[in-house]
Amino acid sequence: MIKHIVMWRLHQQAENNDKGENAKIAKEKLESLNGKVPGLSRLEVGYDYSQTDASADLVLYSEFESQEALTCYQNHPEHKLLLPFMSAICSERRVVDYEV
Fold first, then answer.
1. pTM
2. Of 22, 26, 31, 66, which has the maximum CB count within 10 A?
3. Half-sphere exposure of 24 (CA within 13 A, CB side)
4. Model pLDDT for residues 40-63, shown as the tens digit of each residue
5. Where are the domains of the chain?
6. Which residues of 10-21 are buried (b: 16+ CB within 10 A; e: fewer)?
7. Nearest of 6, 4, 12 to residue 91 by alpha carbon
8. By the 8 A CB rule, do 5 and 60 touch?
C-alpha cells in the first residue's frame, strides 16, 4: 500500500474567493475523486484549525493499492482537471509518499 499525503498553504485571496472558501471548494473537488480512480482505496481532505505559523491550511490523505495506482491517479483526467485550480489557490505545497 502507498500512502500519499499533500499539504497546502493557501493564498489569502485567489480565484475571487478568500482562503476559507477556496479550502471548501478544494475539499469538495478533491473528495469527488473517491470512487473514480482505480486503485484509490481511501481519500480524505481536512482543514487545519490550529492556524499556527507552522500549519498548512489543507491536507489530503490518500491510500493506493500500489505505486502504479498512485501513478494512475496522478495521470487521471479527473485529477488533472483540478490542477489549475489548486495551483491558483496555493502558495506552498508539500508531498509525502511512502509504502507500508
1. 0.94
2. 22
3. 5
4. 999 999 999 999 999 999 999 999
5. 2-99
6. bbeebeeeebee
7. 12
8. yes
Position 57, amino acid = D
What pLDDT is stored for residue 38 in this prediction?
95
Long-range CB pairs of 14-19, under 8 A, 24+ apart, other chains included? 14/88, 14/89, 15/85, 15/88, 15/89, 17/89, 19/57, 19/89
Helix (H, G, I), strand (E, B) or coil at 50: coil
CB 79 within 8 A of CB 27: no
81/20 Cα distance (integer angstroms): 21
Grid coordinates belonging to 87? 495551483
